[in-house]
Amino acid sequence: MSKQYFATSLISDAHAVDIFAADTTPDLAITCSGDSTVNFWSAVLPDHSLVKTLSTEHKLGIHHLCAHSEAGLLATSGFEGEVAVYSISDGTRLHRFSDSKSALWAIRFSPDGDFLAATTLDGRILVWNVSGETAEHCGTLEAKNSAGLCIDYSNDGLYIATGHEDGGVYLFSTESARLVHSLLGNVHPVRTVAFSPLSKLLAVAGDSSIITVYDVKSGEQVFNLAGHSRWVMSLDWNFTGEYIVSGSFDKSLKVWSIEKTECVATQNESDGPIWCVKWAKTAGSARPQGFIGVGADRSIRWYREAAGG
């Protein structure tokens, strides 16, 4: 059975150029762009109006961001190869990271907000403790010599997953700092990895246009989701783990049922590739009300499930 979603809000020209990444909190949707700014949008008001703009020192633009609302932290990764951490409340820059060997790329906070992990373009994963006034580098995970394009922490805090340009997907234990699984089945660049809410499954996608779902404990492939015609750039699980939303270079967003292992909704309103999708996090609700999509057309589109959909 298909589901019906409708666009509740369209913010055109939300940034001056492509919007490469977004994240959501119960109160905000946060977007970043090649224009070097971070915009904070209301997730509560019906018009999702602009709350504030943060002008960053990423002079070449920003391609990744992640937020941790409980810790009050926002991290950004820029095309110059550096990562910065800010206070969400007042925009103060708290930390700035670089690596002498390679550019930093994808970033993710640990579930408790104490750690920030970043991939590098030479295949390593660097981890910092950002819980104090002074950040401390506390470990390096060694993958292969291929650019790490994406990263995620499991919600139980036990694993870090990374996807790489050569198609490699690596699952590391945060307790032992050792490689647990090298996941098979990908030969194209992997651009997005996402753990399910209960940390039992890992969804992986990229230039193959196929979404592959793995069992985290065994490392075995569970099923594939096929339907996009071009690269899949972004994946996000809903709060209950029943659905995944995906965004693609083919300009579409798709919602997938995990139980049925099939696409149950497709949105085609975008005028350009979709770089990032995120489920909304609705305060006081156990179930997100919808999702947002951002991309090359510089717009933010908010979607909500239709009643009875």
What does this structure look like?
The protein is mainly beta. Helices cover 0% and strands 54% of the residues. It has strands spanning 5-11, 19-24, 28-33, 37-42, 50-55, 62-68, 73-78, 83-87, 93-97, 104-109, 115-120, 124-129, 136-142, 148-153, 159-164, 169-173, 179-183, 190-195, 201-206, 210-215, 221-226, 232-237, 243-248, 253-257, 262-267, 274-279, 290-295, 300-305. The strands form seven sheets. A four-stranded antiparallel sheet has the order 1-28-27-26, with no helix packed on it.
Based on CA atoms alone, the radius of gyration comes out at 18 Å
User: How are the strands of the biggest sheet laid out side by side?
Assistant: 1-28-27-26
Biggest sheet layout: 4 strands, antiparallel
CATH architecture grouping:
7 Propeller
On the 0 to 100 scale, the average pLDDT is: 94
Report the count of strand segments: 28
CATH top-level class: Mainly Beta
User: What is the total number of structural domains?
Assistant: 1
Write the layout of secondary structure elements.
Elements: E1 5-11, E2 19-24, E3 28-33, E4 37-42, E5 50-55, E6 62-68, E7 73-78, E8 83-87, E9 93-97, E10 104-109, E11 115-120, E12 124-129, E13 136-142, E14 148-153, E15 159-164, E16 169-173, E17 179-183, E18 190-195, E19 201-206, E20 210-215, E21 221-226, E22 232-237, E23 243-248, E24 253-257, E25 262-267, E26 274-279, E27 290-295, E28 300-305
Antiparallel strand pairs: 1-28, 2-3, 3-4, 4-5, 6-7, 7-8, 8-9, 10-11, 11-12, 12-13, 14-15, 15-16, 16-17, 18-19, 19-20, 20-21, 22-23, 23-24, 24-25, 26-27, 27-28
